[in-house]
């Protein structure tokens, strides 16, 4: 109807997440805990004393970048911050492919934003199928990159929704690919595995991280990219001015300052993930995949995953159906107890 709007946007849908306030929210890989009250009070104080709401925020938040650089063991000129890592994904596509220069590639199933952001920019997206155990097929990836003029490759490590890390053999091959290689380490604080040391070996490497998961700041939308200074400088050129609100900058800075307290929850989440894994392993009808993150990926062997999702939601456990399976975020012990009871009510264990 509207002749001025791009027709290729007709088939896209606005990003939408279900609103289910009564259910246990185990569908977005967030940490189940809010910030501690004393830290929220500190942020409220900083908002009152340190933020003039009529003024634009700092466009280049140097103190935050320095704190991120210290946390990651890099220099400040290797850090870019974004309004969530989603903004940085878009900046990376803008900086590599925009204007018919090339395609975006990833290994499917994976995080949907790589595809969505490419499509909104009218950049072709190439999804290469993962192997049966969700590993990356490096030969197929390399062939697809050659055949499609790919300029940027996104790989989530660990992957979402499947939770697995890249194998060593695959990782070793990425450095020699003729593309910008973006490793998305959104779950780094859970996996404790990082490619940061490779930033000095591979000129084509970018690492993405976020404050949305282990640091409990999903509401504030703070992500960051780590790359060599030349790439970082280009990402700075294509970002929006004032992309990070002042309160978000303060929250991220405070989260790093108090990371000992905040990240103390990580081993608890991992222990809870193992508890859920032990429970699910008893079910013949559920295929469980190994995870290095704060969520689990399972595939019901006979039931339709979407039907299982709806049944679990009806019982108060909201999980995500994705890639022919279910992605279940680890919650609080009480939420996990309810999840376990709800799964037990839907499936009968073979043994016990
Ligand atoms: C959650 C997640 C992110 C985080 O996105 P933000 O925009 O920083 O909230 C990025 N990548 C992956 C793979 C994720 O699962």
Automatic annotation (TrEMBL):
Cofactor(s) the record lists: pyridoxal 5'-phosphate
Record-listed N6-(pyridoxal phosphate)lysine modification sites: 213
Catalysis performed (reactions): L-histidinol phosphate + 2-oxoglutarate = 3-(imidazol-4-yl)-2-oxopropyl phosphate + L-glutamate
Keywords from the named record: Amino-acid biosynthesis, Aminotransferase, Histidine biosynthesis, Pyridoxal phosphate, Transferase
Gene Ontology MF term list: histidinol-phosphate transaminase activity
Residue span(s) of domain Aminotransferase class I/classII large: 25-341
Pathway: Amino-acid biosynthesis; L-histidine biosynthesis; L-histidine from 5-phospho-alpha-D-ribose 1-diphosphate: step 7/9
E.C. numbers: 2.6.1.9
Subunit organization: Homodimer.
Family statement: Belongs to the class-II pyridoxal-phosphate-dependent aminotransferase family. Histidinol-phosphate aminotransferase subfamily.
Family matches, as HAMAP family: HisC_aminotrans_2
Designated name of the protein: Histidinol-phosphate aminotransferase
Organism: Gloeobacter morelensis MG652769
Record lineage: Bacteria, Bacillati, Cyanobacteriota, Cyanophyceae, Gloeobacterales
